[in-house]
Amino acid sequence: MSAAELKAKTFDWFDERLGLRMARDLLDHKVVPLHPGTAWYYFGGITLFLFGVQMFTGLLLLLYYRPTVAEAFDSVRFIMTRVEFGWLIRSIHSWSANLLIFFAFVHMFSVMFTHSYRRPRELTWLSGIALLGLMMGFGFSGYLLPWNQISYFATKVGTDVAGTTPFVGPMLARLLRGGEDVGAATLTRFFAFHVMILPLLTCGLVGLHLLLVQKAGMSTPKHLPAHDLSHMKFFPNFFLRELMVWYGVLALLGSLAAIFPWELGEKADPFASAPAGIRPEWYFLAQFYTLKLIPSHVWIIEGELLGLAGFGLLALVWVALPFWAATKPDGSGGRARLATGVGIFLVCYLFTFTLLGYFK
Amino acid sequence: MRAPKILFLLWFSVWIVPGSAAAADSCVTCHAAIDDAVKGPAALIKNDVHIAHGLSCADCHGGDRTSDDPDVSMNKAKGFKGKPARATIPKFCAACHSSPDYMRKYAPRERVDQFELYQTSVHGKRLAAGDTAVATCIDCHSVHDIRAVKDSAAPVHPLRVGETCSRCHSDAAKMAPYKIPTNQFQEYKTSVHWEALSKRGDLSAPSCASCHGNHGAKPPQAESVSAVCGSCHVLFEQLYEKSVHNAVFSGAGGGGGCMVCHSNHAVHYPSTAMLAGPKAVCSGCHDAGTAPAGAATQMAGWLDGLDTALKKSETVLASAEQSGMEVSEAQVRLIDGRENLVKARLALHSMKPAEMQKPVEAGMAIAQATQKAGEFALHEKDTRRMGLAVSVLLIGIVILAIRLLLRRMESSS
Question: For A81, which of B326, B385, B405 is closest by C-beta distance?
Fold first, then answer.
């Protein structure tokens, strides 16, 4: 049997069991529309790549991390000082988490401003928003895991804010903390959320999100119908370009990890006073700063409650975007323009308040 | 003529001032209405600790505070004592403050031996001998606006007691008859004790009363100086007592214990310059070239050597930390190194170099290990940067290769 025959037979054997031909046909026929906004397509891929980095580095960290109050901090320090390349893995995990959320935001706003959420992509939008929520959940739960002073008190503040949610607040705070206060039960719970519950949910949703993208195809700008545009083959042309971008992001990640290793801080001491200038991760800063600005009482309503109600309303408007903004199939109309205005307002608000929260 | 006028005013005021009936306290009501020196107590008393505890003027001065009539309220038959004579003030206050049963009602944790101690003090003894210029209770605690010691406005609050003592003890005219110096407070204000108290707000740092006593104030005798200092510097005293200096400095007629080297009021930060060099206090007794002077120089060298080594490690670790390296373990070890330096400084008071050698050697070992850790971290940082440069270069090459591959693919199709 010649080598070519052997190769063909092996392919047939696997194709019979895995449907390789179907996958190959799919890749052969998948195309990416070419237009001035094609570059925005890369951001979804970057987010996916960073999620892969998170999974890989997270698994490596799991080999040494110990999720108990007595051992968590020391185990992270052990990873950073004793484990070969432990510092690199931990720093990449931390930097990648932040870049992942940043690129997820960029991806979301690019979808929003190009009105790619319009029919029939409503479910793609909803699954994407849910994924962003899960990413922020990853960030919130992962922040506590090193059990250092800043993360401990930031979690206290974060769960306190969650506790002010109307009706379900106290229950939500207890559910997150595993008790009345942030402690050993909270760490165990956050660890479970971070390495089991959230990854399972995320993997499922990522699968659904990709399936929906595949089903509806790549969205094109409303004034450029897909049939008027030229296309690029997804594989290998677009894929190789995406690969170049991933390599670039990898170089950026490595540079950040090597030049600015993620610091560990001091071990959490529940009896110490809260460190000065305590604040959450940057992606919660805008909300945090807004809540700080609201007076303790506005008329008869508690300020914090009012703030949370405002965020809730805004989130509802944002989640429901495809249902109120895209009334016409081509995404045109007054409501679409209103959605663009809301998007611009949101970008300006997030940018300004994040900076204010960071520097004030 | 003056007394009847005052009495008339007192009587008149309580009848014409609305709301000045005797319901509250006729002493305060009447004295407050008098525009004279006797108004003083009524104006001051609102801040008085006794009033805060529910006592009144009559509880000290006697009389009947419920009567608006001065003849009744200040009647000796009603126990009115009036203003006590200066010589009797300590006894006047002691009527309550030396009574455990009485004091238990208001301040159960308060001591009741102040008067007893006062009688043993230089002030008390002189007062008993007829010298009424000496300090009595009111000279330190004030009168009518007496505040609790913990009240920061009280003249006996730790932060203010030095100034209170200095009101008399820095007054050359007042001290002239007693032939004692007047520069104690001035010197004290240059000391580490004053710095701790006033700048760091450490209220446990010694003030005048901490060493001299308060009610039983007197200068410590030469043989008890180390015990006075040792009440805070316990371990130093223990080692000093076993040293050769104890017999020389603390014996009867000796030189003054700790203050021989450290001074009394102007206690400054100790340094190795006290052991060796032109300003060495040792050289006041030990000539250069003698064995004790040699030992002092050797110990100064050890202390300086350890201090320098620890500082060097600190610098290296700080540099590593600033560049983002994780060196907290070494930094924690460095604290142990600093503790060894403290132990070595402590051991100096035994005046036995062998006692000091052990902590110095332990401290040096830590300084060397932590410096090595810091240098390793800095080297590691360089290695990481080099690794990064190589990785980025490789990634760049891969990106370039993909780009070339794409170009070839797309140009052929």
Answer: B326
Mark whether B194 and B111 lie in a shared domain. Answer: yes
Q: Which among B391, B398, B402 is the nearest to A254, CB-wise?
A: B391
Which tens digit of pLDDT belongs to each residue from B76-121? 888 898 889 999 999 999 999 999 999 999 888 889 999 999 999 9
Of the candidates A162, A27, A119, A148, the one whose C-alpha atom is nearest the C-alpha of residue A333 is A119
A237 touches chain B (CB under 8 A): yes
What size, in residues, is chain A? 360
Is residue B253 a part of any domain in this protein? Answer: no
Question: Which tens digit of pLDDT belongs to each residue from B42-73?
Answer: 888 888 999 888 898 899 999 988 888 888 88
DSSP secondary structure, B63-124, as one string? S-TT-S-HHHHT-GGGT---SPPGGGHHHHHHHHHT-HHHHHHH-TTS-S-HHHHHHHSHHH
Which residue from B minimizes the CA distance to A77? B326
Query: Are B385 and A259 an interchain contact pair (Cβ–Cβ within 8 Å)?
Result: yes
Residues on chain A touching B325 (C-beta within 8 angstroms): 261
Test the A interface: residue of B388, B409, B410 with most A CBs within 10 Å: B388
Four-CA torsion A123, A125, A128, A129, nearest 10 degrees: -110
Q: Are residues B391 and B361 in the same domain?
A: yes
The pLDDT of residue A349 is 94
- pLDDT of the residue at A299: 82
Q: What is the CA radius of gyration of chain B?
A: 35
Look at B189 and A274; give whichever has higher pLDDT: B189
Q: Is B215 inside a domain boundary?
A: yes
pLDDT value at residue B20? 39
Q: What is the residue-averaged pLDDT of chain A?
A: 91
Q: Which domains does chain A have, with CATH numbers?
A: 36-267 (1.20.810.10)
Residue B48 and residue B127 in one domain: no
Contact B324 A81 (CB under 8 A): no
pLDDT at A329: 64
At residue B247, the pLDDT reads: 81
B385 to chain A: closest CA residue: A258
Is residue B271 domain-resident?
A: no
- Nearest CA to CA, how far is A160 from chain B (Å)? 31
| CATH (domain of B408) | 1.20.140
- Whether residue A216 contacts residue A121, with contact meaning beta carbons closer than 8 Å, is answered with yes
Residues of B in contact with A248 (CB under 8 A): 395, 399
Residue B228, domain member (yes or no)? no
ipTM value, please give it.
Answer: 0.85
Give the pLDDT of residue B16: 39
Same domain assignment for residues B98 and B205: yes
pLDDT of B3 over the 60 cut = no
Q: Report yes or no: A236 at the B interface, CB cutoff 8 Å.
A: yes
* Residue A219 per-residue DSSP state: -
In the predicted model, what is the mean pLDDT of residues B383-410?
A: 95
Give CA angle at B381 (B379, B386), nearest 5°. 95
Instruction: Output the pTM of the full model.
Output: 0.70
Residues B20 and B143 in one domain: no
Name the residue in chain A with its Cα closest to that of B391. Answer: A251
Same domain (yes/no): B93, B204: yes
